Amino acid sequence: MLDHTDMRILEELSQNSRITMKELGDKVHLTGQAAASRVAKLEDNGVIEGYTIKVNQVKLGYFVHALIHIWTKSSYHEPYLSYINLQEKYVINNYKISGDSCYLLECRFPSIELLDEFLVGLDKHVNYKLSIVINK
Q: What is the set of domains in the chain, with CATH numbers?
């Protein structure tokens, strides 16, 4: 069970995972060593699974952000999944979901033309509904 201090540590690390343990300790009213010990315990217990960076996709040239609801044409999903694996440079997330569709695919593309090319290939394997993100 996580206490208030553990929750504060998670909040601080979520905002800046590069914070020093001394700085973290100052923010949650612990010594740096005590904060490091708490973080290690959170890692050991699997609460903290890893540390990541947030990449600005637009600055990398991926201007088109698409959300695509996927309906497979059969119960055999492997052709779709194989196609998605080949297109990994565009795919951010491929969620298997319940509800109106089978998957929710989140992608980024450098251009509408490349999105269209992707969709032509996708159409060979599944039915889909496309939404373009206008603003976050």
A: 4-44 (1.10.10.10), 64-132 (3.30.70.920)
